[in-house]
Each structure stands twice: as C-alpha cells, then as structure tokens.
C-alpha cells in the first residue's frame, strides 16, 4: 500500500469559505474524505499549518518514510527558501500543487521556490489538482 501525505500551508484551512470564486465551496475535509474513498489502496494522511517552521518540521518528519508528498505551500511557495531547502533535503518525492492557476494571478505568484526541487507541479485544476498528484504516485 502506498503511503502519501498531503501538506497544506497557510489559509488552506479556510477552504470552502475563503474566496469560493477561486477555491470553491468544498471544505478540504469533505474533499479528503471523497479522495480517500476513491483510492482505498492508498493511505492518504493530511497535515495543515499556517506556520512556516511547522511545515518544514513536517516535511523533515515524513520525508524519508512516505512514498509521496503532495505539497501546497500556498503563499509560502513564493517566499520560503526554508521550505524549498527542506524539499531539496528529503528523499521522498514531492509534487507541488496549487488549486488556482498561479500564473493567472498577481505577478509575485509566478515565482515558486519549491518547483526546482519538486517531482512535478500541478496547478489550476481546483481541488482536482490533488487527485492528479495522487495519480502521479499511484500510476
């Protein structure tokens, strides 16, 4: 059985209520339940934090024992050299995910410190971006 963790960064705990025109109306908990039902042979763990250091700690904790990490570092994608270094330092492959198309938003969102160290990047498909990332580890 594959063991994958989804790690979400700041403000993603507000999915379902935060800017529904960008992020949709479904909470991440509701989405995660559906995802786990769809992939019963994959253990999908979940972690969310608004704190940069906690995200780094989690990456280091799981980065040598999981089969895959799906990381949506949210705004830290564009600012955190620390998270980028953590992704580079671990052995577990990381797929960078974004719900929105970051290239269709403000210019500062066009830069990712994580992408150069990620297995791949999926963005702009709403919550479906996470499922595409799961598929990249399963198939």
TrEMBL record:
SUPFAM superfamilies assigned: Type II 3-dehydroquinate dehydratase (SSF52304)
BP GO terms, sorted: amino acid biosynthetic process; aromatic amino acid family biosynthetic process; chorismate biosynthetic process; quinate catabolic process
Binding site for substrate: 72, 78, 85, 99-100, 109
Keywords tagged on the record: Amino-acid biosynthesis, Aromatic amino acid biosynthesis, Lyase
Reactions this protein catalyses: 3-dehydroquinate = 3-dehydroshikimate + H2O
GO molecular function: 3-dehydroquinate dehydratase activity
Keyword Amino-acid biosynthesis: yes
Description of how the protein assembles with itself and partners: Homododecamer.
Name listed for the protein in its UniProt record: 3-dehydroquinate dehydratase
Species of provenance: Oceanihabitans sediminis
């Amino acid at each position: 059985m594959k063991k994958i963790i989804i790690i979400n960064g700041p403000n993603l705990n507000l999915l379902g209520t935060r800017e529904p025109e960008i992020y949709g109306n479904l909470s991440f908990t509701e989405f995660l339940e559906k995802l786990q039902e769809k992939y019963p042979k994959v253990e999908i763990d979940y972690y969310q934090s608004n704190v940069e250091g906690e995200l780094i700690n989690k990456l280091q904790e799981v980065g040598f024992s999981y089969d895959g990490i799906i990381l949506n570092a949210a705004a830290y994608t564009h600012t955190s050299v620390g998270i980028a270094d953590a992704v580079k330092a671990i052995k577990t492959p990381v797929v960078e995910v974004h719900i929105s198309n970051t290239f269709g938003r403000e210019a500062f969102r066009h830069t990712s410190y994580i992408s150069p160290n990620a297995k791949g990047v999926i963005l702009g498909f709403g919550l479906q971006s996470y499922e595409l990332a799961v598929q990249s580890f399963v198939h």
